[in-house]
Amino acid sequence: MRTPLLALLLPLCLTACLETTSNKTEQTKTNAVENTSTPIPQQKLPQANKQNKIAQPLPADAAKEVSLDDIKTAKDKLNSLIADKQCSTSSQCKVNAVGSRACGGPSDYIVYSTQSAPQKQVSALSDTITQLESTYNAQKGMMSICQHLTAPSTQCVENKCVKLEGSAVSVF
Questions:
Q1: Where are the domains of the chain?
Q2: Per-residue model confidence as pLDDT tens digits over 109-135
Q3: Which residues 6+ apart lie within 8 Å of 147 measured at CB?
Q4: Which residues of 104-138 are buried (b: 16+ CB within 10 A; e: fewer)?
Q5: Residue 119 is inside which H or E element, if any?
Q6: Separation of alpha carbons 134 and 104, rounded Å
Q7: Which helix (H) or strand (E) is 168 found in, with range?
Q8: pTM
């Protein structure tokens, strides 16, 4: 006896709840229409400190004009510095982000050995290349594929630092 009674009362109660919510929704819509007819004063929103990651053209006098030759020269210096990838342990193998895509993020990752290349020099050259590419992208209004590259893992294999294929260190 309880089950048929519940089967009848439950839909009745649910429909009663639906009618009140639709009435409230209609009242809210009417109030919203009435409120839009009166002008609302504009408030100044605080500016966000983050800069837009998409490259935008810079004013001509904002920075020195960067050419592809400047970037190539810096990359050649970095590649000659990290050419020797000799290592004795995996802890000597490091990964560093290099370059800047127009949408943001690094354009590449390099693998090097701290046994043969000083970490501070590699970091400084990587930062220089990143700044040059970022400036170049902004000056030329470049666009890119906006694909996120993940930092690869490295390991000392046969006394050489190698990038492990198919593995990545996630920052999430």
A1: 68-169
A2: 999 999 999 999 999 999 999 999 999
A3: none
A4: bbbbebbbbbebebeeeebeebbebbbebbbbbbb
A5: helix 119-140
A6: 9
A7: strand 160-169
A8: 0.60
